[in-house]
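hey m, so remember when u said the tokens were messed up on ur end? i reran from scratch. heres the input so u can diff it against urs
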Amino acid sequence: QVQLVESGGGSVQAGGSLTLSCTASETLNSFNLMGWYRQAPGQQRELVASITTSGRINYPDSVKGRFTISRDNAKNTVSLQMNSLKPEDTAVYYCNVVGSVFPYIHWGQGTQVTVSS
């Protein structure tokens, strides 16, 4: 079973920055897709950023230009640099990977990000 350990959440004022990290229990080359999702209270979980093994990156318009996803294969880590944070970025952020072996999809435990105005 793949283990994903997240870190880096916390509280910050609007305009501030945070970096989230997700370390996997196996090589990132095991996964076809890696990404970050978030879920605010009463809201559906939504994609924040994704990166494929070939390096193709996708962001929704809500975070484009402010968030940057990256991967460090040597450390089995996927990171999310979040700049110019807004109160509406407040949510629990989850790391997600999609592999080629059942059960295919794995989630981290989630890390809270709180942005105050």
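this time it looks ok to me. The longest strand covers residues 31-39. if urs says something different then somethings off w ur setup not the seq
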